[in-house]
Design goal:
The protein contains 3 helices and 5 strands.
Length: 132
């Protein structure tokens, strides 16, 4: 073989190896969400039906009605549900219709198991919006 032919063969082989390496490194499969949360609100009234919502963050998804805002609010407090600012301007009537809010799942790889009872749905929303 002549030197130019060897160089061409070697260059072609290198391109094939690099191409195969890049193809192996490409990630066509979506990565799992860094945070996957199951949110449940259970009214204390007899016969009431709990509501269930899923929320994923990074990437944002699930069947949460306002997933992007919920993920942003949780990110701002490091996933600590007790530190959510909610809506400080909300005004709720003093009607006692307790609701149990619960969250299970993971937040950025850390296990989450949070539960709190609120006086009514308005109070829940005022303290935890846009997450609940």
């Amino acid at each position: 073989m002549t030197t130019p032919l060897l160089r061409r063969t070697f260059a072609t082989a290198c391109l094939v190896v690099v191409g195969l390496g890049l193809a192996a490194c490409s990630d066509d499969d979506p990565k799992p969400a860094k945070s996957t949360l199951n949110l449940t609100v259970t009214p204390a009234a007899p016969g009431s039906t709990p509501t269930h919502v899923t929320l994923t963050c990074e990437p944002t998804g699930g069947d949460h009605a306002n997933a992007e805002a919920a993920c942003k609010a949780l990110a701002a407090v490091g996933g600590d549900f007790d530190k959510l600012t909610g809506d400080p301007t909300a005004v709720c009537v003093q009607v006692f219709e307790p609701v149990d809010a619960a969250v299970t799942g993971t937040w950025q790889g850390k296990q989450v198991d949070w539960r709190k009872v609120f006086g009514n749905k308005c109070e829940l929303s005022a303290r935890t919006t846009p997450v609940f």
